[in-house]
Design a protein that fits this description.
The complex is a heterodimer.
Chain A: H1 2-6, H2 12-43, H3 47-50, H4 65-72, H5 74-106, H6 113-125, H7 130-139, H8 157-168, H9 173-180, H10 185-196, H11 198-214, H12 217-222, H13 232-243, H14 250-260, H15 263-293
Helix pairs in contact in A: 2-15, 4-15, 5-8, 5-11, 5-13, 8-11, 9-10, 11-15, 13-15
Chain B: H1 2-9, H2 17-23, H3 25-43, H4 71-78, H5 80-100, H6 102-112, H7 117-127, H8 135-142, H9 152-160, H10 173-201, H11 205-213, H12 218-243, H13 250-256, H14 268-278, H15 282-309
Helix pairs in contact in B: 4-15, 5-10, 6-10, 7-10, 10-12, 12-15, 14-15
Classes of the chains: A mainly alpha, B mainly alpha.
């Protein structure tokens, strides 16, 4: 492809097409970045003033009050802590169990291998539905329980297949010497396989991390009664849902009342503090996980 | 993976399965450490599906509630909601497929024509940022722009003279579907284009060389070389996308719907949630959910079988 690019001779329509593409891409990139620049401007603007609208790239009346409010609001701080907790615990447990299972399934001489794969495929495409899951969580006391964020997400079949594909490409010679020494399978996994599998482990960590950081529906649905367990995204969802509706319960009306004055700017500040960690991680690991996605084919 | 496995197998091949199992007990244990989660969270909840055929009585458990056969299914198919919900689901999903499916292909083709490597990776990097953000965040970042009073989009359209009155983008039922489709494309195009970009990077440059010698222009090269080369992937992804036609974007609609656009956002998944959890009609909602799960299951299964003819299935 590089040789194709080395000599560029364009006909006239091609040159026009090229500039259209460049223009389109520029507009596309601006449209992607602008919402966050705009939100940043709102978050640094004085609350009542922002209601007039007309804020674009920069705040009109600069103020740090929104962030002061956000950081001094115990509900928001707590929700943020829950988000961090579920992300850290969720990533560690998911990577551990996904990795362990994927390694086992990557062994070609594994007994019942086809049966296990079939169980995974069916689980991947058949969804029991929201209500059976809702009832199941209630029956096993996972409702209104922090563990509902962690346990159901320990194994994601897609991620597991991705890891399995990576593991099965590791040269067998690496594990052989340890096998001769009589090391256990699990020890071989930890001491030999894990160190050479860092690219795929990083990829799966980021996928799980982003998933956990963004998750809000599980808390909204399954932890409805213990709002102190709600992560920041669920809190934001409730703020959004309330700003378009009227409060029905006393607690909702209270929340609505408290937010009303500066709802737009405080929401903007909350969005910014929620987005920043993702953008940060994203810009560091971007190249990495693209490679990870492309690891082998998905075919199990 | 040959030798180490042979070693593991050595001498056990003729002995009974039990001994072989015992030899690989460690590996089996590792598989089961993960598989138990799959069984616990994806298989055991299936017992709740029987609710679709029972009438859950207050104060009684699932097992004590009487069988009512297909009553809930008949109720759903006979209700006015059936038409509304199915229309919403299929219309939205179809529009997302029609416009959203070609978008990443066109995007990848266009991106491929950007000469500078640096510019290309910058555009790509920016383009898949929204994929990593939740719809909640996206709503939070967009609602001010789409606002009727002084929102950026209205300001632009007004100053261009394209509209006379500010538009209430999020509160106009007729704009709801187009908006959802556009936002879905905006969020996912960059990410979905990765796989096409990867496929295009794998095309032999000599093909383009030869075409240029023969006097083929850019468009000709795209039509005759690039598109045929990525066609298998296009077909596979299309089939699989069609398989999930009943997924119209649950969390997107949940976040963007409001009282004015409520009916436009009422797709199968949302209906199940509203009827089941909010109204407490568990049995009925389970039946509606099961209807969706079964059709979805069959469609994905069929889609994969078709894709496998391309040797491109997921399993």
């Amino acid at each position: 492809m590089s040789s194709r690019r080395s000599q560029i001779r364009r006909t006239r329509p091609e040159a026009i097409a090229h500039w259209i593409i460049v223009l389109f891409m520029t507009i596309f990139c601006i449209s992607t970045l602008y919402p966050f620049i705009n939100t940043l401007a709102f978050s640094f603007n004085e609350g009542p003033d922002a209601l007039r609208g007309g804020i674009y790239f920069l705040p009109r009346k600069f103020s740090l009050m929104n962030y002061e409010r956000v950081f001094s609001d115990p509900t928001i701080v707590r929700a943020y802590a829950i988000t961090i907790a579920r992300t850290v615990i969720g990533v560690i447990s998911a990577v551990f169990f996904t990795g362990v299972m994927a390694y086992g399934l990557s062994k070609p001489n594994l007994m019942f291998r086809r049966f296990y794969s079939m169980l995974c495929v069916i689980a991947m495409i058949f969804n029991p539905g929201l209500i059976p899951v809702y009832i199941f969580y209630r029956d096993v006391h996972l409702q209104n329980n922090f563990l509902v964020y962690i346990l159901p997400n320990c194994i994601n079949i897609w991620n597991m297949i991705l890891m399995k594909t990576f593991f099965s490409q590791i040269p067998a010679e690496l594990e052989e010497s340890a096998e001769i020494d009589g090391a256990s399978t699990f020890k071989i996994f930890l001491s030999i396989v894990v160190p050479v599998s860092m690219p795929v482990i990083a990829t799966i960590s980021i996928f799980n991390g982003v998933f956990q950081w963004n998750a809000w529906f599980d808390a909204y649905m399954f932890c409805a009664r213990r709002t102190e367990l709600h992560p920041i995204q669920t809190y934001l969802y409730k703020v959004i849902a309330l700003s378009t509706a009227t409060g029905t319960t006393a607690a909702e009306s209270q929340l609505l009342e408290r937010l009303k004055v500066n709802v737009v700017t405080i929401r903007a500040a909350t969005v910014i503090i929620t987005v920043i960690p993702i953008v940060f991680i994203y810009s560091i690991f971007q190249k990495h996980f693209i490679k990870g996605v492309m690891v082998g084919s998905l075919k199990g | 993976m040959g030798d180490s496995q042979k070693l593991l197998n050595a001498g056990t091949r003729k002995s009974s399965g039990l001994i072989r199992f015992r030899k690989q007990f460690g590996v089996q244990l590792m598989v089961w450490a993960g598989l138990s989660f799959v069984i616990f969270f994806r298989y055991i909840p299936i017992y709740g599906i029987q609710l679709a055929f029972r009438e859950l009585l207050p104060g009684r458990g699932i097992w004590d509630s009487p069988f009512v056969g297909l009553k809930h299914f008949r109720d759903f198919f006979g209700s006015s909601y059936f038409k509304l919900v199915m229309t919403n689901t299929l219309a939205l999903s179809f529009m997302k497929l029609l416009f959203g499916f070609p978008a990443p292909i066109i995007f990848a083709l266009m991106l491929n024509e950007i000469v500078s490597q640096k510019a290309r990776s910058l555009i790509q990097g920016i383009s898949y940022l929204p994929h990593f953000l939740s719809w909640v965040i996206i709503y939070g970042a967009l609602s001010n722009i789409l606002n009727r009073d002084g929102g950026t989009l209205n300001s632009i359209l007004l100053s261009l003279g394209w509209i006379d009155e500010p538009i209430h983008f999020l509160g106009t039922p007729s704009l709801f579907w187009p908006l959802m489709v556009i936002l879905d494309i905006w969020k996912e195009t960059g990410w979905s284009a990765i796989i096409y970009m990867a496929a295009m990077a794998g095309i032999d440059p000599q093909l383009y060389e030869a075409a240029r010698v023969d006097g083929a222009g850019k468009l000709r090269q795209i039509i005759s070389i690039t598109l045929p080369s990525i066609l298998p992937i296009i077909i596979t992804l299309f089939i699989l996308r069609v398989g999930s036609i009943l997924d119209a974007g649950f969390d997107q609609l949940l976040v963007f719907r409001n009282q004015i656009t409520f009916d436009k956002a009422n797709i199968l998944d949302i209906y199940v949630m509203d009827v089941g959890v909010s109204q407490g009609r568990y049995s009925y909602a389970t039946a509606v959910g099961l209807f969706k799960s079964v059709i979805g299951f069959v469609m994905v299964l069929t889609a994969n079988t078709l894709a496998n003819r391309n040797d491109q299935g997921i399993w």
